[in-house]
Amino acid sequence: MVALLFLVSLFLSPLAQTVPAYATAPALLFVGLMARGLSEIDWEDVTEYAPAVVTALAMPFTFSIANGIALGFIAYAAVKLLSGRFAEAKPAIVVLAVLFVVRYAVLPQ
Hints:
- By secondary structure, the protein is mostly helical.
- The chain has one domain (23-106).
- The protein is 69% helix and 0% strand.
- Helix 3 runs antiparallel to helix 4 and helix 4 packs across helix 5 (91-106).
- The model has no long low-confidence stretch (mean pLDDT 84).
């Protein structure tokens, strides 16, 4: 159900763009508070920590939680593919990564 609603949200994202950027600043603050989860990442495996770092850095730099998560999905699939460990990536993550790439390639920002 969550995956289905997430896919629907990809097409409804233009509606979310009607919210001004300054109204999203408090949400980014809460993302910063959630950074405690970074301690649970496997820091010995580059295919696990690189996408997490991309996600954590992209959120504040793009001023968008959604863009940060999207870049994290893309980075995870790309790192697994480039490292030869693509079988470890779950099919749902790969599908979402492809959808995000298509979204950013087709839809203007």
